């Protein structure tokens, strides 16, 4: 074979081997990876207040990712970002903060949080999004984080993916406020053995399935105040000790289910100081399209006269 042809043969053979090893999928994955790297950091001139392990407060302007290189001290324990504009938290936006225990976003315009936004936060306990604009909670945002409290308040939240809060081995309190979610799904939490408090206030839930709280052996307190609940399935509260239900348009027949739960669990009714007469639960008249609150003193006195004990279930102040 002539020298030139031999060289061409070697080049073509090498090229064919390369094409065999590098598939179109590999190329696309590499492109996607590079795009993720270039777009991953979410912060642009974002003002943040933070604290170190001594409780000393600092202020900083964040550009790029929120990591241990973003601050003048390396032992940051708490970060608060308030009244900023951060429409997206991209993948790997917040991480490599070994002492961080809590992070709080208040009215920061957050609409989307991508799975993997939080990483390498071994001491994180509390993640709070107060009055942001979440549309969806995706699986992969919080899973496997060691946090024990999650708060999301968003008036445009319409969907939580199944198992969005699963595999969180320390999770004790989950608070979802002001959401537009219509249907309750216990699969949001997987089979959580550590969950003690569910706070789902100021929403539009109309019903709870009979198995709503099955699979949560340590659940102690739930709050569904100020939703649109009008009836309760028998036995639904069986594993729960303390329940907040005021501010819902109950039909009076629903009091039978609540009475049965109280008798079975030796429970108590929490006072509602916003009612006309806070000593009694509220029934509603449902003959019109608008539910009108009415007090049925005789019914409530009959049902609850034996239950004078008042036990309060207090959600941690950081989640209010």
UniProtKB/TrEMBL annotation:
GO cellular component, one term: membrane
Compartments where located: Membrane
Domain of life of the native organism: Eukaryota
Main location: membrane
Membrane disposition: Single-pass type I membrane protein
Signal sequence coordinates: 1-24
Pfam families: LRR_5
Keywords for the protein's UniProt record, in alphabetical order: Glycoprotein, Membrane, Signal, Transmembrane, Transmembrane helix
Name of the featured protein: Protein artichoke-like
Gene name per UniProt: LOC108742500
């Amino acid at each position: 074979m002539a020298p030139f042809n031999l060289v061409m043969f070697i080049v073509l053979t090498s090229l064919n081997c390369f094409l065999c090893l590098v598939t179109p999928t590999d190329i696309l994955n590499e492109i996607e990876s590079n795009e993720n790297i270039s777009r991953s950091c979410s912060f642009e001139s974002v003002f943040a207040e933070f604290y170190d392990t001594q409780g000393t407060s600092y202020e900083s302007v964040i550009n790029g990712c929120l990591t241990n290189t973003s601050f003048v001290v390396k032992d940051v324990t708490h970060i608060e970002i308030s009244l900023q504009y951060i429409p997206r938290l991209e993948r790997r936006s917040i991480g490599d903060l070994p002492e961080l225990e809590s992070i709080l976003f208040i009215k920061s315009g957050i609409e989307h949080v991508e799975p993997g936004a939080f990483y390498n936060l071994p001491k994180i306990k509390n993640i709070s999004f107060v009055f942001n604009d979440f549309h969806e909670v995706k699986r992969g945002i919080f899973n496997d984080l060691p946090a024990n409290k999650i708060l999301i308040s968003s008036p445009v939240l319409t969907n939580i993916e199944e198992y969005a809060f699963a595999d969180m081995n320390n999770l004790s309190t989950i608070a979802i406020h002001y959401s537009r979610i219509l249907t309750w799904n216990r699969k949001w939490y997987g089979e959580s053995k550590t969950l003690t408090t569910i706070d789902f206030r100021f929403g539009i839930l109309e019903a709870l399935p009979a198995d709503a709280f099955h699979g949560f052996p340590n659940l102690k307190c739930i709050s569904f105040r100020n939703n649109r609940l009008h009836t309760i399935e028998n036995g639904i509260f069986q594993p729960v000790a303390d329940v907040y239900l005021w501010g819902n348009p109950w039909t009076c027949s629903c009091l039978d289910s609540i009475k049965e739960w109280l008798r079975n669990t030796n429970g108590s009714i929490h006072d509602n100081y916003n009612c006309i007469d806070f000593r009694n639960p509220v029934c509603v008249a449902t003959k019109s399209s608008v539910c009108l609150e009415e007090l049925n003193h005789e019914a409530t006195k009959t049902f609850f006269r034996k239950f004078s004990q008042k036990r309060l279930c207090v959600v941690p102040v950081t989640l209010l």
